[in-house]
Amino acid sequence: MLHTRVAIVTVLAWLILPSPASAQQSGGVRGVVREASTRQTIAGAQVVVVGTRIAAVTDPQGAYTLANVPLGRQVVRVRVLGFSSLADSVDVTADAPATLDFALTRTVIQLEEVVVTGAGVGVERKQLGNTIATVDAKTIAAAPVQSFSEAIAGREPGVQVLPSSGLVGEGARIRIRGNASLTQNNEPVVYVDGVRVDNGGGFTYAGAGGAGTPSRLDDINPEIIDHVEILKGAAAATMYGSEANAGVIQIFTKKGTAGRPRFTFRSDQGLSRSPRSAYKPLAGFARYGTFAACLADSAAWGAKTAAQTTNCRTTIGVADRLSAIYGEPIGLYQTFEKDYINELFATGYHSSYSGTVTGGSETVVYSVAGRLTREDGPFTTAPLDSRALANDYNRKYFGSANIILYPGQRLQLRAGAMFTDVHHETPNNSNNIYGVVSSAINSKPEQADCEESRKLGLGGTFGQDPGRPGRCAGPGDPSGSGAFITPREAAYQQVVQGAEHFLGNLGITYQSAPNVKLELTTGIDVTNASDFELLPFRYNVDNYTLNEILGRKTVGNRNNRQFTLDGKVTWSGHFQDFTSNLLVGTQGFVTRERSRGGFGRDFPGPGIEVAEAGAIRVLNEAFVSTVNLGAMAQEQVGYKGWAFATVGARWDRNSAFGETSPWAFYPKVSVSLVPSDLASWHVPHVSALRLRGAVGRSGLQPGAFDKFTTWSTLASELGPGLQTGNLGNDSLKPEISTERELGAEVGLFQNRVGLDVTWWLRNTVDALVSKQYPPSGGFPNAQLVNIGWLQGKGWDLKLNALVVDRANLSVNLFVNGAFLSQRIMSLGGAAPIKVGGSYPRYRNFIRGPDTLYSAPGVIDEIRYYAPGALLGAAVIQSCAARPVYRGGANAGQPRPCYTPGSTVPYDTDKNGQPDSEARLQFYIDSLRTRGTAGLLDVLNPMFDDVDGDRDVLDNYLGKPTPDWQGSFGGAITFRRNLQINFMFEYKARNYTITNLTDAFRTSHPLIGRNVRGAAEVEATLLDPASTPEARQSAAMLWATKYKALSPYDGLNQNERGDFLRWRELGITYTAPPALARRFGVDNLAVSVTGRNIKLWTGYSGIDPEENTIGRGGGGQLDNNYLDAVDGWGAPLPASWTLSVRFGF
Amino acid sequence: MTRTDYCLAWGLALAAAGCGNLLDVDNPNNIKGEDIPLPTAAGPLLNGVHSALARGINTVVLPIATVSDELDWIGSRDAWRQLEYGDLSDPFNEFTDAAYPNLAQARWMADEAIRIMEEDRDSAFFVQKIAVDPVFLARAYFYGALAYVTIGDLFDRWAFSDMRVPAAPLAPDQMRQVYDTAIAYLDRGYAFADSLVRDAVAPKPAAVPWRLAMIALRARAKHARAVWDMIGSVPTNPATITNQGLVSDAGALTDAQLALSLLSSPDWRFDFRYSATTVGGDFGAWVNDRAEMRLGDVYVYASANNKSWSAIRLTDPLAGIPDPVLQVTADSFMTKATYPNFTALSARELHLLVAEIRLAQGDTVGFTSAINAVRALNFGTSFRYDPANVAHPRPRDMLIYERQVNLYLQGRRLADMYRFGVNYTAAAGGKWQPTSEAVTQPGRFLPLTARECLSNPLIGGANCRI
After folding, report:
1. What residues of chain B, 67 to 106, have a C-beta less than 8 Å from chain A?
2. CB–CB of B361/B248 below 8 Å?
């Protein structure tokens, strides 16, 4: 440490030396930047004196002022997104400021745009051999964006922002070019003004079930974002070393500009509404006409009188009871429907208010911003109980400030701070048996009963509320909950998170010589998130649930601190036709996270809301610390301004590596050629061309303590105890991604049409695999080992066209798409890893071609699986498909199949062959004769075994990530003042969604068979009056469409998920300055924006974007690969917002 | 760029990157593996084994109870239904697959504890280890034996791997060996505990309960081994029920009688107790909290909403009243909500072992005496064998009944249903489907589950199902 301190002190001492440049004479330059075709002024353009760091940004009137400009002839360059960069020269004198105006031409391709790159210094885009995606504030200003996640969604090919449900305040998962890691965090690392921030999410010990989980990235106020740069993979992010496999997102916040204070304000008011009829109505049928008839049917209940009485009163459809409760005649075996679920969604409301002030002088600029947002989502408990606690609500306060000081011409000091306060409430949800919506989805209308009211003497004969059909007079189960809890009881549970998020940064830039610059950035990001779940004392208001009815309070706290220290020296030089930019630097991160939590349950009485009051209490605490120290060097050589080559490397040490692991080394090299910058370039209609290639590496370190062999705590009734924990691995090292990129950018027709094409190939070797050693060896937890190989490849395509560019009308259209193919090339012989733990319904697997799973000689149907591939049960196919074994000893031989008209996909006599239709009829009849109430439970279709390995649960059923994903849209401007923006997003081809919600709803005997088709099948099979033909047909439907769940996990639960969604619409009217001034402001704009406006899909579930685990709702493996699982979630609501912006 | 700049830049980079001591991050959450053999860790190690075993037994008995008539499925997770219907050899069943590693961990930890305790038995180091508590070694033997007995009772196969080193599984017809191992542990453990109790210089009273537990467990192990001889090698060999399913094992009888003579109280039992601060029992969480199962229709009447039970159904064959011992057990089970006790050994079972062996030997007097010893604990009517009265319960039926109620939810019922031929098919009002394994292959127990097959190269996925 001592030599580090000495070095830092030396740097600081050097920095405070008086600057010789400050004594020189200088002058000024000012002017206005306009659009060439319309003469409209351009705000936010960057104006710089070339060869210096003297710069300014144009104000809302397009004006700029440059001070302290060296005397003599100077070149001034102006850049702004969407326009060609332009440079002009001007003579600067000490007498008076020179005037220099600019007229910029619109363009859709910008090779001169300055990006910061993975090395942390600004460079023109054309000099880089790798892609860097940029999202500019202007792009999102007119879009319906309420969060950081929404700000980048759909803007760039290959950057996938994955929403999960329609609950407010929920974060989205972000993936860049798919997943680079099998087991580690695939969320990109995120920097704000050079300081790494917490990119986690979710709850701690409390939790709601998956959806409604916040992302810490959404603690960033989208209003303060100037632009975002996205380094898509290892080739671009090499300089971030052991953190960067999943890509890097750099956020640059808006800074102040010199001048008088400028104020801007914005107010948003909006409504949101879930799609009507997103949920299929609850369907059921009555099995008995009267209570007495039910009791008389002793055969169905094994003569167990008490159970029979119970069942007739409650769970089994009895027509007279149901008719009374629903206030309408319910006929025997007649399927009826009740729309109970959709009543839980009404109109949501959201609002936000924000303001900024910026200004400064020649020596200091500042920017201060504040914002308040409130969202109350469409979910409501109002139809259930006015006293219910569950809520779908999110409130945030944002505050930020930054200041830049220029104590001398060679020195810049920066300081910034950002603070966010969050209050978030969400109902228990998704795959949570105590969820409000899920308990409603799991209800069966024929089970509706008001027995608890009847016992209290309330309501009608059956306890029903005579004035409100479908409701009980008091407590009861009017929805027909299949198990666990009634929706009303579930609504009495409360889940809340409060979070404070602070980011502070300090930076110094010192130009020690005209061609040498030192930069030092340090900062800290602190998140303190506390959450709780409360089950009030005796919340079982319907006297139904048995779950912790004396109440429980679970509390959790997560405190995450990330320290960043980043120092770089750059040197630039010229050698004849060559330019050189050399960078050396160091970067260090320290992450410390402490999580604490626990619960107290069984309260002594009502009104208690503290865990301490519980008779049973548990405390948990965990601590993780990771230290990463790296050094980097990079040299970039340019030739005559059109050819560039970059070589660089990073060396890393990390506290998570095993003790025998060496330094991690990540090299890179890239080439960029811009032939269109050659003086001799003349290709008709091709106004710009760049060819580029890059190869680079980055890594991802294992978990902080995975290298240790440890025993964890396991207290016993006899005292403190220990149990086997982690097997340990001394040689753990980072997994290494090597990415190759080839690409081209082409500008056509004076750059009015731009095409950006990138092909990439990524190999992640030494991939960290959670290898399960035999549990019989005593260590049941999987151990990370560097044995995997994951390959990803794809195309990023982007086409942008300025179709019309006239003074009164401009039309800019874009389309982008990303093709993604991921394959597991090796799992190092490890067993397939099931995503979602032991829960068998989730069928996503990590499986390699070299898995132990198959017997010797067995060749899988698909050798190279996509990570997260769906493997599960299938029913034998029709013989028309001529199915053969695709592996194993019988490869190529016919598989069992059925022939419609003679045989069926059942093997009820267990002879290994499909039954004849007559045999199936006999079997069904025998079940009916025996009075088997759960007839469908024992009507089991015949398993298929495609690869002949005797494992009937490993048939390939699809993959949860689409081949293609992207967006298209445009911006249309009428008469300079009216702008319409729109964007559509899509996913297409080879995209399979696990519709778990409907699998339960079609198949499950207690909490399902409540969609019309499945209810009809069951009614037909049980109805004494049904015909043999009808029963045969019902049995076929059962096998091929409705049968699902254990032991047929995976069967009939997968659907094509392709969709097209109208994601954004923005209509903005910008008032002319004269009109604005009438209102006493300098500028004024009014917008109407819409989000998630329309969905086109063949998917039959709730929403093709709904994902059951949300953002951070599961384990790491779940977050990586439990994709496209639709499980009891809420659909994305359509939202509309009216915004007013003004400034002065 | 000046030389100073270069030096400064490189110096900064290397200085920061070279701060090696920053990288030495400790893990304050856990104990390092190399510290486990230390004398100070001996107590926590054995406590951990105790807790792991408490969890392991509890988790594997729950699916067995679901297969048997003891529990009925009423929830949402239909892998329980698969078990209830009598199919229990599916290695991919989520609940057996989740349960298996717990017992596997407990077995290995128990063996490891025995190894650590035995390793330096004659050294001063060992003396240090046991200085804190002289019964450490005895406890280690007991836990190991109980793990092995449970494995033999409830599994068709087992593998004895060691950390990363896989072991080939014992075939079904080799599983008798696990009882031999258990009995060998108990021989050594009992002798050691007995020596502590009888130490002429400094007797160790703390060893008394462990000595009792070990001899009781040895009785049970020998009885279980005899049961295994009838139904244990299924599915390799069909069940060979002899003597109407009754066990006649002299060693078990001797040990049971010795244990009964050592009882500290007439209704002695060795219970595992659970709490929020130890491990949770699966029974409480799945049955009382989540209501995935409830006590079976054979035993109770369901509550109005079918989520629980309202009254005892099973009536005492002599008194004709709802069985009092079942009432106590069921009440206790429900009252303790998430954390009901789990009984691993009991005086009642010892009496029942004696009764069964006496009956198998044709000693109805001895049988009657033993069975009434149990009934006396229940304050029940005494059984008096009356061969002339056909309406009177037969001794074998009496035995089956008393085992059913006195060993309720202890993992014995399924084996009893197999060996005594209890008809639990759907046609008889039970839950087993006619084509299920419980009906077609009586004697089937839990498999080596997918988690073991797929990670153990000496098994392999294709050999997961037998």
Report:
1. 74-79, 81-82, 85, 87, 90, 92-94, 97-98, 100-102, 104-105
2. yes
